[in-house]
């Protein structure tokens, strides 16, 4: 049921949700985004970095992950930057510069910088039933079964990244454009969900200009660039979820009608466009994985750590079973109970339980992202000093390129760790509660029903925040 638009919505009652500032109006920004060599130069640099990561994985083999270039760069530096900066601020900018699918894309195009209208490969359509996040949900959940190996065994990280590259190439030969990134890449799904919280977006400046433009070069391409590799319609894009920010639409629009905007965080959470159970389950899975990662890497429970690290086959199978039940059944089941309580409290019989369940699940996105940022503090501050060592000796060969190879492990500002985590969780709670009320207003519309239906959701969000606070601070 659509929400009444009679009153403008404000984030925390302060900032209008529809406020935008066009960054591409700043001199030089639009010029940069329209260059064919951008972001390709960033992709080539990251490709060089990933070659070093892959080589360090082979040379490091089964050595300690703390002294592996690949393990430290991927699971501390890259992951922390992704969760703390790239996704919450710049949306899916990592997809813009990610080198992993580029090999397959170059095989399709037989070009790196220039434009080739005749793409190679079979260019088949992706199966309609799989045009959602379900496959990415299961693949990402599946990769976490091996998390105890990735963070301590360089060779495991090599196999993970290598598998993504090979799979990306194979699917690029079969399916059209960036189908791999849209529907398969394990990293793509959570970036898509959490990019709804991002403070930036790619959007059309004036929809009326696009309506008059018959050719829609942002879709089909022209001599200046390719039609949207992400198979979207940039002229009518409404939310960040599936936009890989490749910038081809900036290059192909003859009217300079595309904009890169700054906006309030979470604006897309209120856009009811293709909401579904697949995205709801992604939010549940991400919460379950945040809990599991803390237990496996920072918690005091030794037996659980042994299970995650596969010390015994039976223990590892037990971990996988409990992790799957938690992510796919327990957390969604708890949310279902509170969604039902919300519907009952609202007394709105004409609103389906599915609509309540799906709509209100987006209130977990700010809370989930905050939980991951808080977790990242717990990873970065105690372990960040290891990065100085691996930068000097990336292959573990006894080098000292930067003079920091012998820098001792030095935890940084760990006295501030728990306060930072609590403040982050509190910020996520406040924003989740605010958007939760707005989502309840979208779902129930009638003011008294909104207030009644919101109470169970607020209780749930409070419980989730307290639980993560206990987990991280206990």
Characterise the protein shown here:
With about 475 residues, the protein is mainly α. It is about 60% helix and about 5% strand. Helix 14 (about 275-295) packs parallel to helix 18 and helix 17 (about 355-360) runs antiparallel to helix 20. Residues about 1-5 have low confidence and may be disordered.
Q: What is the strand and helix layout of this fold?
A:
Layout (H helix, E strand, L loop, with lengths): L9 E2 L3 E2 L4 E2 L6 H5 L6 H21 L8 H22 L2 H5 L4 H8 L24 H11 L2 H4 L3 H21 L4 H5 L2 H9 L5 E5 L2 H6 L4 H4 E2 L2 E2 L21 H5 L5 E5 L14 H21 L4 H7 L4 H34 L6 H9 L2 H20 L2 H7 L24 H28 L2 H27 L1
Antiparallel strand pairs: 1-2, 3-7, 4-7, 5-6
Helix pairs in contact: 2-3, 2-8, 3-18, 3-19, 5-8, 6-10, 6-14, 14-16, 14-17, 14-18, 15-16, 16-17, 16-21, 17-20, 18-20, 18-21, 20-21
């Amino acid at each position: 049921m659509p929400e009444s638009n009679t009153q403008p919505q404000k984030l925390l009652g302060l900032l209008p949700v529809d406020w935008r500032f066009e960054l591409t109006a700043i001199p030089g920004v639009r010029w940069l985004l329209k260059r064919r060599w951008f972001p390709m130069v960033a992709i080539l640099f990251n490709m060089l970095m990933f070659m070093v990561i892959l080589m360090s994985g082979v040379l490091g083999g089964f050595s300690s992950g703390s002294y592996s270039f690949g393990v430290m760069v991927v699971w501390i530096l890259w992951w922390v930057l992704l969760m703390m900066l790239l996704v919450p601020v710049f949306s899916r900018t990592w997809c813009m510069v990610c080198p992993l699918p580029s090999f397959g894309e170059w095989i399709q195009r037989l070009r790196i910088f220039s434009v080739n209208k005749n793409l190679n490969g079979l260019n088949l359509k992706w199966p309609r039933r799989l045009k959602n996040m379900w496959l990415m949900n299961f693949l990402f959940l599946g990769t976490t079964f091996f998390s105890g190996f990735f963070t301590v065994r360089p060779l495991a990280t090599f196999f993970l990244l290598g598998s993504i590259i090979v799979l990306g190439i194979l699917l690029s030969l079969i399916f059209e454009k960036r189908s791999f990134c849209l529907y398969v890449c394990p990293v793509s799904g959570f970036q898509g969900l959490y990019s709804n919280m991002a403070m930036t977006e790619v959007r059309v400046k004036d929809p009326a200009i696009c309506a008059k433009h018959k050719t829609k070069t942002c879709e089909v391409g022209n001599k200046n660039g390719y039609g949207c590799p992400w198979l979207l319609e940039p002229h009518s894009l409404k939310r960040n979820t599936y936009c890989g920010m490749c910038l081809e639409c900036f290059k192909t629009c003859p009217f300079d009608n595309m904009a890169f905007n700054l906006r309030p965080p979470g604006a897309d959470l209120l856009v009811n466009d293709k909401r579904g159970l697949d995205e709801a389950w992604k939010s549940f899975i991400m919460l379950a994985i945040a809990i599991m990662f803390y237990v496996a890497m920072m918690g005091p429970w030794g037996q659980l750590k042994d299970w995650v690290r596969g010390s015994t086959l039976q223990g590892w199978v037990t971990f996988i079973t409990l992790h799957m039940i938690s992510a796919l059944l327990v957390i969604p089941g708890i949310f279902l109970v509170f969604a039902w309580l919300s519907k009952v409290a609202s007394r709105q019989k004409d609103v389906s339980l599915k609509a309540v369940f799906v709509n209100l699940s987006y209130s977990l996105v700010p809370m989930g992202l905050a939980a991951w940022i808080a977790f990242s503090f717990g990873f970065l501050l105690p372990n960040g000093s290891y990065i100085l060592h691996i930068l000097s000796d990336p292959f573990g060969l006894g080098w000292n390129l930067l003079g920091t190879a012998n820098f001792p492990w030095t935890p940084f500002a760990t006295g501030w760790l728990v306060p930072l985590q609590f403040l982050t969780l509190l910020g996520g709670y406040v924003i989740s509660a605010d958007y939760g009320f707005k989502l309840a207003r979208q779902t129930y519309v009638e003011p008294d029903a909104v207030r009644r239906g919101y109470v169970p959701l607020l209780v749930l969000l409070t419980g989730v925040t307290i639980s993560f606070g206990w987990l991280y601070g206990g």
